[in-house]
Amino acid sequence: MFQSAQAVLFDLDGTLIDSAPDIMTSVNLMLCDLGQTGHDEAAIIGWIGNGVERLVKRALTGAKAGEPDPRLFERALTLFRQHYRAHLCERSRPYPGVVAGLTVLQQQGFQLCCITNKAGAFTEPLLRALDLQRFFGLVLS
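Now predict its structure.
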């Protein structure tokens, strides 16, 4: 079935690594800076996906499809990025078995690629901090 496969492509967040704790910290620090109340872990985890901009909008409105004031959103987005850069890899970790699985695939000669909607400014440092960059011949952010 996979005899002709030469590469294996992976998503990053929620697939290879659990980055939710650091994302949650950054969202709540952003909200605190704005004088707003933070959200619990379950709410923030439910909002992750569809990119940072949508996450920030969800955190500001408390709704999956809400639209905050554009000026507030721009300020919040800048704050989130600052906090996430500072807390990028405090509690983020590869899921159990990820390193072993990537090692086996690499040893079997597969080209490994990481494809994520996370901005490159966060992806590359995160992969380095978790010692995962060594597995990927291609990283697309």
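The chain has a mean pLDDT of 95.
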